[in-house]
């Protein structure tokens, strides 16, 4: 149906190639020309000033959920005034002892023009990215 492409570029920047000394900084290049500097999580010797894959994963889930929610509201003619999410992903070991983003909590603060009650059930089930992963995704409505 659709394809989404990202070019990842990494180059060794020193003569040695030892586990704790090689650079783990790299770039993500997108079709619109945007380049984003990325690294490993600072928990794994990455550069904390750059985006890491775990943060990008949580951000993509949060973004997909919001875009799905806004589309549903627009189709229902519900006037959304603002939407904020303070998403938190949890890196944990699974049953096999492998580290995974096991759970993502979406802490939503949504305002409507006329105090419409908030429901996220459909947007949670229709989000493309959420449907693509095993990660448990929980929405928490904050007031």
What does it look like?
The protein has 2 domains: 7-44, no CATH class; 53-141, K homology (KH) domain (GMP Synthetase, Chain A, domain 3). The model has no long low-confidence stretch (mean pLDDT 93). With 143 residues, the protein is of the alpha+beta class. The strands form 2 sheets. Strands 4, 5, 6 and 7 form a 4-stranded mixed beta sheet that branches. A 3-stranded antiparallel beta sheet has the order 1-2-3, with no helix packed on it. Strand 2 and strand 3 (35-38) form a beta hairpin. The N and C termini lie far apart (38 Å). It is 20% helix and 30% strand. It has 2 helices and 7 strands; from the N terminus they run βββαβββαβ. The protein has helices at 53-75, 121-126; strands spanning 7-9, 26-29, 35-38, 80-85, 88-93, 99-112, 136-141.
Instruction: Round the mean pLDDT to the nearest integer and report it.
Output: 93
Distance between the termini: 38 Å
Order of secondary-structure elements: EEEHEEEHE
Shape: elongated
Uncertain spans, ≥5 residues at pLDDT below 50? none
Q: What structural category do the secondary elements indicate?
A: alpha+beta
What's the β-strand tally?
Answer: 7
Helix count equals 2
Q: So what's the CATH class of the largest domain?
A: Alpha Beta
CATH superfamily of the largest domain: K homology (KH) domain
User: Do you know the CATH architecture of the largest domain?
Assistant: 2-Layer Sandwich
Find the CATH topology of the largest domain.
GMP Synthetase, Chain A, domain 3
Task: Provide the helix percentage.
Answer: 10-25%
What is the number of independent domains? Answer: 2
Indicate the proportion of strand residues: 25-35%
Largest sheet entry: 4 strands, mixed
Radius of gyration: 18 Å
